[in-house]
Amino acid sequence: MTEQETGPFAAAVYSRQTVDREALAEFAEELKGQNVRVGGLLQEVMFDGVGRKIGIDIVEVDTGLRFPINRPTKENIEGHSCSLNSEKLADSTEALRRAVREKFDLIVLEKFGEQEQKGQGLFDEIFAAISEEVPLLIAVPEPALEIWRQQTGDLGQTLDFDLDAFRGWWAGVRAT
Q1: Residue 45: strand, helix, or coil
Q2: d(CA 81, CA 73)
Q3: Burial track 57-93 (b if 16+ CB lie within 10 A, e otherwise)
Q4: Which helix (H) or strand (E) holds 148?
Q5: Residue 2: its pLDDT value, please?
Q6: Each residue of 126-159: pLDDT tens digit?
Q7: What percent of the chain has pLDDT over 90?
Q8: Cβ count within 10 A of residue 2
Q9: What is the tens place of the pLDDT at every residue in 54-69?
């Protein structure tokens, strides 16, 4: 990935071909193990007893609190309609507001999704972290990268979705 102007935030860009989609969660756990105050939200795909995907939870990084944001019904699946629970997504915003308010060392967020691309969802909390200069590492799907760049004024850094890229970026953030 190309490096844009350095800032305390970075887009961790992934595609369908990204092999290790757990790298962001692994990075957060690694830093927490080093006594870094990491906050934010990560997604976890939920499966039933036979391995079928049944939904997605958002999990607070610092507390482990879970929000079931996506539980598609048969009608959602058959009609290819959105099954995002916007109310549960809104409930999860406190984790980001708290991390900004308490100036955590790092906020990780999975992801810059469709809602955020439209200026909804967690959009306000993302840009509050950026404006308050709380370091932010956010997963951005490759097709949304141009929207991300437009919304950030092409500031921050763009990283490969890779532990080594995250570590290198973090070392630079900590050095400033």
Answers
A1: strand
A2: 10
A3: bbbbbbeeeebebbebeeeeeeeeeeebbeebbeebb
A4: helix 145-152
A5: 41
A6: 999 999 999 999 999 999 999 999 999 999 999 9
A7: 65
A8: 5
A9: 888 999 999 999 998 8
Instruction: Compute the Cα dihedral for 83, 10, 160, 109 and give only its sign.
Output: negative
Q: Classify each residue of 102-136 as buried b or exposed e, where b means 16 or more C-beta atoms within 10 Å of its C-beta.
A: eebbbbbbbbbbeebbeeebbeebbbbbbeeebbb
pTM for this model (two decimals): 0.88
Task: Report the alpha-carbon distance of residue 149 to residue 165 in Å, rounded.
Answer: 19
Tokens 């850094």 map to which residue? Answer: 157
DSSP 84: B
Residue type, 100: V
Task: Order the strands of the 136-141 sheet from edge to edge.
Answer: 66-70, 53-60, 38-47, 106-110, 136-141, 5-14, 155-160
Closest CA to 63 of 40, 86, 31, 97: 40
Q: What is the largest CA-CA distance in the chain?
A: 51
Amino acid identity for residue 118 in this structure? K
